Amino acid sequence: MRDGFKIIDTDAHMMEPESLWERYMEDAYKSQAPQIGKAPGSGRRAFLIEGESFVREKGKYPMAAPGFLKTVEKSMERFGKARNAGFSAESRLDDMDAQGVDVQILFPTVTGQMLGREFRDPKLLAACCRAYNNWAADYVSTMPYRLKWAAVLPMQDVEEAIKEAHRTAQNGCVSYFVRPNPVRGRTIWSDDYLPLWNEVERIGKPITTHDLASSSVPRLETGWTRTSAAIFYPIPSRRWPQWRV
């Protein structure tokens, strides 16, 4: 609580450990799991999947830009205590107490970056999402009434996304994290996703949309307000009156 008000941070981010997929990936996909290596195109140390970096290393808004990396490193200095603790749930709760934050809704960081690329194998993507979601559920179990998590969905495979939406709802997620980027020519308001949105309305969990920098798939270069309006206003009010965003 701060100044007499209860505070809910609705856009907090996880700092996923490098060991996440090694520990949580299913055996059938463990050999293909994300791992740290040298990113093609830049040589920097980064997460790789299917032989590629999670993010764009060259071109427009590259993650490997020296100025960007320097800014990130500088900004992380104030999180030294949490960093030394491996960004544990306990260190997060200490920071929340210091800032007067009662509850955080936790979004992915590097996992969100991973979702900004096309997968040649959508089943591998689904396995990566399951691994992250299982880890996130364990992370918040330290204090579940203060730490809440948004589940990620494998949007390239609608059937897998529906299964994961149901599974993670049963495991305690409070919303679904969805990137607004078009993937394989489909925007998230494509008719291909109608079965998913039907199920999301039945489940009763809200959708949260969030872009991240340096995606390999196209970005919607219209500005946040126009993008949000284009994504959501035409959809829930007419087709799914119980849908929440």
Describe the SSE topology.
Blueprint: E1 8-13, H1 20-24, E2 35-38, E3 45-49, E4 52-53, H2 66-75, H3 80-84, H4 89-99, E5 103-107, H5 110-114, H6 122-140, E6 147-152, H7 158-170, E7 175-178, H8 194-203, E8 207-209, H9 224-232, H10 236-239
Parallel strand pairs: 1-5, 5-6, 6-7, 7-8
Antiparallel strand pairs: 2-3, 3-4
Helix pairs in contact: 6-7, 7-8
Name its key features.
TIM Barrel, 245 residues, globular, alpha/beta, five-stranded parallel sheet
Tell me what you see in this structure.
The protein has 245 residues and is α/β, with parallel strands linked by helices. The protein has a domain at 8-15 and 80-239: Alpha-Beta Barrel (TIM Barrel), CATH 3.20.20. 37% of the residues lie in helices and 14% in strands. The chain is built from ten helices and eight strands. The chain has helices at residues 20-24, 66-75, 80-84, 89-99, 110-114, 122-140, 158-170, 194-203, 224-232, 236-239; strands spanning 8-13, 35-38, 45-49, 52-53, 103-107, 147-152, 175-178, 207-209. The strands form two sheets. A five-stranded parallel sheet has the order 1-5-6-7-8. A three-stranded antiparallel sheet has the order 2-3-4, with no helix packed on it. β3 and β4 form a beta hairpin. The longest helix is centred in the middle third of the chain and has 19 residues, at 122-140. The chain starts with 7 loop residues before the first strand and ends in a 6-residue tail after the last helix. The mean pLDDT is 85.
